[in-house]
Automatic annotation (TrEMBL):
This is Probable bifunctional tRNA threonylcarbamoyladenosine biosynthesis protein. Its EC number is 2.3.1.234, 2.7.11.1. In the C-terminal section; belongs to the protein kinase superfamily. Tyr protein kinase family. BUD32 subfamily. In the N-terminal section; belongs to the KAE1 / TsaD family. L-threonylcarbamoyladenylate binds at residues 145-149, 177, 190, 194, 273. It comes from Halorientalis brevis. ATP binds at residues 355-363, 372.
């Protein structure tokens, strides 16, 4: 089949023709892409200027792509005179800048009507991840989307791509671009930071990971301040890349660990950064996972990825009536019913082994005790790596004990060596909550989180893997449900931090449970009984935040 794709969510006026079968990548498929990039004269992307750019250049790139489709059709023995040159028209429906999307939508509808072929509306972020899955042939990978306006980790489960973690403020590319605007560099800033970083040395900047979520605002203000007080720009760029990309790599590793997957694909314009790809590749190699990043022409915004996903959707019969084809500038990837792929979920069955490779540590399980060592992560800058390992070991020791004092079941600590980043714990539970989800256990977690919040600290990473359960096969309500792995915890009285703990737990349920909504309600009920209602209200706010900034 031949499929026309049209992209124009922000800066790339782009059209493409995919020629192939639509299933996994084959040697005789081809993707032709024609793009005209909008380059702001000053500052960042101006929505009005960007829309003008689309108005002017989308028709041109579409004409070029259609000319290519006609050439392909002329060589195609099954194509008859009078047949349309393409079988369907696919377009980016969102997310993106409204004025730009409307132009793309109009163009797509008019081409589809002219040739009397079906129309397919594609989620741009799902296209960013599907292109890597298509080309790699991975069955059910964890996907890291690192683009301008977004940054999230996704995994497929039960008919949707679930957001396992994401930025709590701006997209990663936008964060970098804001810094470069501050220092007076032209848009886009990403490649300039990459270049300058080549001659830089490390300096300390914030590093903010909360479970599988992360935020860039603190590190970006610190980077601007460092520049303003006269630090070398090369050093600021270097440290910025080291911290921001280590954060993304860490959450990607956390997602691999949480789901048990051993495949990672990268998508989005920031994925063009070699340092980011190097870190991800190294992390995957170290844990025996496979890593795939598409070529640059498929990472930055391009209509090729739209055409490839569009082809899959078309083959699955997932087309749109013209009257239902309105754009959606806040279109989230988890809103898309996934019609085009088989049901294999990212999450694999849990196995209890003697040695567990967690997201950060290697845990050796002995009959009565476990030894947890935060092994150096070679993808991270050594100074950052040492700082994180020592800090987290200290915090974990302190908060594990403190939680116990408040009546929350946690393992006893037998020994600790911060310099070696090693803790020896009592062995608790029979399995992780991930493999033994029940309403009662989830309720216990809700109550435990409320208890530690009332005591003034957060867990920082309360996923279903960081809860151990005992009393399997025993339906008694008082199962022991232990919280472990307090390494990302800290003292705080900010309701936002408490809500984030619950949000992290909710996301991990979404990533591992078949029925996350009921379980989550149970957890919230139990939380409400001990904790502060304001935290739950704030959780609603966190969940409702539009991330398209
Ligand atoms: C919704 C859609 O419009 C949006 N698209 C988008 O952000 O364009 P994309 O091509 O995926 O990414 C552009 C970003 O990618 C960054 N970028 C490009 N080359 C880079 C590099 N070598 N290193 C770091 N960042 C880079 C740019 O600075 C810019 O912020 C998105 O996907 O979020
Ligand atoms: N005290 C314990 N008793 C029994 N099992 C444990 C204990 N501590 C850890 N484990 C097992 O080891 C796994 C990894 O431990 P932990 O979560 O502390 O490491 P981690 O590297 O920080 O992991 P992650 O960051 O992926 O959650 C746990 O999911 C659990 O199965
Ligand atoms: Fe994009």
């Amino acid at each position: 089949m031949r499929v026309l794709g049209i992209e124009g969510t922000a800066w790339a006026a782009s059209a493409a023709v995919y020629d192939g079968e639509g299933d996994s990548e084959s040697e005789d498929e081809s993707v032709f892409i024609e793009t005209d990039a909008y380059q702001p004269e000053s500052g960042g992307i101006h929505p009005r200027e960007a829309a003008e750019h689309m108005g002017e250049h989308v028709p041109e790139v579409v004409q070029t792509a259609l000319a290519h489709a006609r050439d392909l059709a002329a060589e195609d023995p099954t194509h008859e005179d009078g047949d349309p040159p393409v079988d369907c028209v696919t377009f980016s429906r969102g997310p993106g800048l409204g004025p730009c999307l409307r132009i793309v939508g109009t163009a797509a509808r008019s081409v589809a009507q002219r040739f009397d072929v079906p129309l397919v509306g594609v989620n741009h972020m799902v296209a960013h991840l599907e292109i890597g899955r298509h080309q790699s042939g991975f069955a059910s990978p964890v996907c890291l989307n690192a683009s301008g306006a977004n940054a999230h980790i996704l995994g497929y489960r039960n008919g949707r791509y679930r957001v396992l973690g994401e930025t709590m403020d701006t997209g990663v590319g936008n964060a970098i671009d804001k810094f470069t605007r501050h220092v007076g560099w032209s848009h886009p800033g990403g490649p300039k930071v990459e270049n300058a970083a080549k001659d830089g040395e490390y300096l300390d900047l914030p590093y903010v990971v909360k479970g599988m979520d992360f935020s860039f605002s603190g590190i970006m203000s610190a980077a601007k301040q460092a520049y303003d007080r006269g630090e070398e720009i090369e050093d600021v760029c270097f440290a910025l890349q080291e911290n921001v990309f280590a954060m993304l790599t860490e959450v990607a590793e956390r997602a691999l660990s949480l789901t048990g997957s051993d495949e990672l694909v990268l998508g989005g314009g920031v994925g063009q950064n070699e340092r980011l790809r190097e870190m991800l590749g190294e992390m995957c190699a170290q844990r025996g996972a496979q890593f795939y990043a598409p070529d640059n022409r498929f990472l930055r915004d391009n209509a090729g990825m739209i055409a490839v996903l569009g082809a899959k959707m078309y083959a699955a019969g997932d087309t749109l009536a013209i009257e239902d084809s309105q754009i959606d500038s806040n279109f989230r990837p988890d809103q898309v019913p996934v019609t085009w792929r088989s049901g294999e979920s990212v999450s694999q069955p849990v196995t209890d082994e003697d040695e567990v490779q967690g997201a950060e540590a290697t845990v050796t399980i002995e009959p009565d005790r476990v030894v947890k060592r935060r092994v150096p992560r070679s993808y991270r800058h050594p100074a950052l790596d040492e700082r994180l390992r020592i800090e987290r070991t200290r915090e974990e020791t302190r908060l594990t004990s403190e939680a116990r004092q408040h009546g929350v079941p946690t393992p006893a600590i037998y020994d600790v060596d911060p310099q070696e980043a090693t803790i020896v714990f009592e062995r608790v539970g029979e399995t992780d909550l991930r493999g033994a989800l029940t309403e009662q256990r989830v309720r216990n977690v809700g109550r435990h989180l409320a208890t530690i919040h009332e005591a003034g600290f957060v867990h920082g990473d309360p996923t279903t893997r960081n809860v151990r359960v005992a009393g399997l096969g025993n339906d008694a309500a008082d199962d022991r449900t232990y919280l472990i792995d307090f390494g990302l915890g800290y003292y705080t009285d900010d309701v936002e931090d408490y809500a984030m703990d619950l949000h992290v737990f909710a996301q991990s349920l979404a990533g591992t449970a078949d029925d996350p909504e009921t379980l989550l309600e149970a957890a919230e009920d139990a939380y409400r009984a001990v904790g502060d209602e304001a935290v739950l209200a704030h959780l609603r706010e966190v969940e409702g935040r539009g991330r398209y900034q």
